[in-house]
Design goal:
Layout: H1 20-34, E1 41-45, E2 60-63, H2 69-79, E3 84-90, H3 91-97, H4 99-108, E4 113-118, H5 155-161, E5 166-171, H6 175-186, E6 192-197, H7 209-213, E7 216-218, H8 228-235, E8 242-249, H9 256-259, H10 277-285
Parallel strand pairs: 1-2, 1-3, 3-4, 4-6, 5-6, 7-8
Antiparallel strand pairs: 5-8
Helix pairs in contact: 1-6, 3-4, 5-8
């Protein structure tokens, strides 16, 4: 049996009151409930406060470049399909620097889970607006009175339109609900996006826990997650009522590693694969 403490307890470098703490607890609880052991997981992240999350987990992890985590996660899943590959990073890392890779991932539908800490601001670099910042949000880089003047990026609608296997929204202030959503996402066969709303008390003084608590609502059984149009409509709801839960499930979609002709369905490193070692050696020597 997998326990939460199997993933360890570590001292963090996050600010007091950060929403990252809630996301970390929810991730550990969801993994334990899903029966996924540390040795069976690979966490991949980029750069940022959210991207430090794998540092605070006892697991396999790869901490890469800013915005470049999704290609690594995709490659790892192809190399070893038996791994539970989880990409975890922030909204800036994923939707800005990594925006092109995010688009490629939702098109390819690899069998990985993307947990995006969405605090609508850059925390590590001290408060610039991110792709999901609200219009009017004023920062040192986007000063008032106008602040941000463009529409925020809608990651869930983008993912749903491209036919991912799973798209959901969570909230760092509702641990039980978030861990339940994550548990479902970790077991999806295909790309599972979980956009997690989380406050940043240091640099985003609008979207606080109190602000979210007055507005979030959990989706009920009346929502059909297989209805794509209904799912997209949910992503466009205003900020007065913010839905949480599983927006979309595409049960017909096959993951990238099961559709790509070069993927054999077993780990590339496993013994027994028919590999022409001489051909590999000659290919490698050709680079010198």
């Amino acid at each position: 049996m997998v326990e939460v403490d199997d993933f360890g307890r570590f001292e963090t470098a996050w600010c007091p009151g950060c929403g990252n703490f809630g996301v970390l607890r929810a991730v550990k609880k969801a993994l334990a409930n899903a029966g996924i052991a540390p040795r069976e997981t690979l966490f991949v992240s980029g750069i940022g406060q959210a991207a430090k999350t794998p540092h605070y987990l006892r697991c396999n992890f790869f901490n890469g470049l800013h915005g470049r985590g999704l290609p690594v996660a995709t490659a790892a899943k192809i190399a070893n399909p038996s791994l539970h590959v989880i990409y975890e990073s922030g909204d800036g890392c994923t939707y800005a620097e990594g925006g092109n890779h995010f688009l490629a991932a939702v098109r390819r539908n690899p069998g990985i889970t993307a947990v995006v800490h969405d605090n609508q601001v850059y925390g590590l670099t001290k408060g610039q607006a991110s792709p999901t910042s609200d219009p009017g949000f004023a920062t040192k880089a986007q000063p008032g009175p106008e602040g941000v003047v463009w529409r925020p990026f809608n990651p869930l609608a983008t993912a749903i339109l491209h036919g991912v296997s799973f798209a959901a929204r969570g909230y760092a202030g509702r641990l039980e609900h978030l861990s339940g959503v994550l548990e479902r996402a970790f077991l999806v066969d295909g790309f599972a996006l979980v956009d997690v709303l989380q406050p940043c008390p240091s640099f985003n003084h609008k979207n606080s826990f109190g602000w979210f608590n007055e507005r979030v609502r959990e989706l009920g059984p009346e929502h059909d997650p297989t209805d794509r149009d209904a799912a997209i409509a949910l992503t466009e709801s205003g900020e007065e009522e913010i839905p949480l839960g599983v927006f979309y499930e595409n049960r017909e979609a096959k993951p990238f590693e099961k559709r790509h002709p070069g993927a054999a369905g077993t780990a590339l490193a496993l013994a027994g694969r028919d590999t022409d070692r001489q051909a590999v050696r000659e290919m490698m020597e050709s680079f010198f």
